[in-house]
Structure formats: C-alpha cells, structure tokens
Amino acid sequence: MQAADAIGELVGEKHQDYFTVSVFVRVEKSPTADDLKHLGTSLADHVSIGMLHTVCVTPVARTVEEALRDQKPKDAVTVTDENIESCI
To answer: Is residue 21 within 8 Å of 51, Cβ to Cβ?
Structure first.
C-alpha cells in the first residue's frame, strides 16, 4: 500500500458526503500526477467523492480560501506519518 492509499482511507472514512470537497493543505512535497491519481482512486474506494483540492497544486486552489470558496471547513482530519504507517 502506498501513502496515497493510506491517506485516501484515513480521509475517506471520515467524510461520507459526495458534495463535500476535500482540501489538502500543508503537503510536504508537491505531488506528481500519479500521486494525485492514486489519492483520487483511494478516496473513491472509501467514499463517493466529487472533487478534491490540494492547495498550491490545484489551479483553482492557490490558497486555502480559494479552495474553501470563502466557506468555513465542516471538519478537519490531520494525517500524520504514524497514521499512514498504521495503514500500510
């Protein structure tokens, strides 16, 4: 299992609303196109997701405010290396 698979599982278990857009912030390294594909696939395995944004990567999400479209987040999930390791 890759880290993207673990992140998809951890986030997907917490968010079960198709209309909720997951916004990823404080990503330590810029994800590749394949990383984003793996993450999207993993999220789709765990939740019906319509869209996701990675701040500073997704063109319409240059900032957290843009990603959230000036709305407050409904929830937050913190994913740590320990969380990822426990899933792998």
So the answer is: yes
The length of the chain in residues reads 88
Please give the Cα distance from 40 to 4 (Å, whole number).
8
Mean of pLDDT values over 43-69 = 87
Residue 18 has pLDDT above 60, yes or no: yes
* Extents of the domains making up the chain: 3-80
Q: Are 22 and 43 in contact (CB under 8 A)?
A: yes
Bridge partner list, 16: none
pLDDT at 78: 85
As a whole number, mean pLDDT of residues 68-88 equals: 85
DSSP assignment of 12-40? HHH---TTPPEEE---SSPPPHHHHHHHH
- CA distance linking residue 78 with residue 88, whole number of Å: 17
